[in-house]
Amino acid sequence: MRGTFYGIGVGPGDSELLTLKAVKILRNIDVVIAPKTEKNEGSIALDIVRPHLKEAVEICYQVFPMVKDFQKDFSLWEQNKIEIEAILDAGKNAAFLTLGDPMFYSTYIYIFKLLQKDGVKIETVPGIPAFVAIAAKYNQPIVEGNDILSIIPATANTSEIEAALTHSDAAVLMKVYKNLNDIKQTLETCGYGDTLTVSRLGFDDEEKIDLKTFDGTDLNYLSTILARRK
Ligand SMILES: C[S@@+](CC[C@H](N)C(=O)[O-])C[C@H]1O[C@@H](n2cnc3c(N)ncnc32)[C@H](O)[C@@H]1O
């Protein structure tokens, strides 16, 4: 019988921030699919789940190009899909690991859509998104009462970011690794004086950054800003 494909949210970085359901599946899974961006890097998501895996588990590393390149050339995605289906056709269950939550700005969504089209049996297990874990760790409420929250990829146009901030009371800015000076300026202009910026939450080198004194050089890719109007 064809195996099941599980999309597992592994949370933001701490091996204890996975659901019991995710851990139960990972303990029994035949094959773990560990996505990587570059051929020479390890998989962060795999490091997170290591303590929960059985010894005899099979690890299948898959390299995924940046999501923005998906439209241009999806041959690598297609190749990864074929490899996953071969595992399932051999009767094995496979768990695809995703940082944070699988349905939230993730590579998983693209591979999930390809497999869904082919009628693969899929079960997605939610994970704790980074911004939720940041709020908990630093005791910072995200929204209260009737507050409107915008979740904004900092890679969007400044005018789009401004429009979202203008119509919200609080914001989560993701992917803030590059254009930090512009983001800082936009937040100030829109009255978001209260900010919490955290890089690599849950990892050994986690860092809380003070945006006011930050010198404007690049941040780590795994960085998020929680912001509220003053
Ligand atoms: C492609 S999105 C993945 C989001 C992920 N699926 C989630 O649910 O959190 C990558 C962005 O998530 C945020 N992020 C993910 N892990 C993080 C961490 N450990 N610490 C801070 N931000 C993180 C950063 O804003 C990063 O640029």
Tags for this entry?
binds S-adenosylmethionine; 230 residues; five-stranded parallel β-sheet; 30% helix; Methyltransferase, Cobalt-precorrin-4 Transmethylase, Domain 2; alpha/beta; five-stranded mixed β-sheet; 10 strands
Report on the structure:
The protein has 230 residues and is of the alpha/beta class. The chain folds into two domains: 5-125, Tetrapyrrole methylase, N-terminal domain (Cobalt-precorrin-4 Transmethylase, domain 1); 130-228, 2-Layer Sandwich (Methyltransferase, Cobalt-precorrin-4 Transmethylase, Domain 2). 30% of the residues lie in helices and 22% in strands. Strands 3-2-4-1-5 form a five-stranded parallel sheet, with helices on both faces. Helix 3 (75-89) crosses helix 4 and helix 6 (158-166) runs parallel beside helix 7 (180-189). The longest helix has 15 residues, at 75-89. The model has no long low-confidence stretch (mean pLDDT 92). The protein binds S-adenosylmethionine. The site of S-adenosylmethionine (SAM) has 21 residues, from strand 10.
Task: Please tell me the overall pLDDT.
Answer: 92
Elements, N to C (H/E): EHEHEHEHEHEHEHEEE
Based on the structure given, which CATH architecture of the largest domain is correct? 3-Layer(aba) Sandwich
For the secondary structure, the number of strands is 10
Number of helices: 7
CATH superfamily caption of the largest domain:
Tetrapyrrole methylase, N-terminal domain
Q: Provide the β-strand percentage band.
A: 15-25%
Sheet/helix structural class = alpha/beta
**Helix fraction?**
25-40%
What strand line-up does the widest sheet have? Answer: 3-2-4-1-5
- Distinct small-molecule ligands in the complex: S-adenosylmethionine
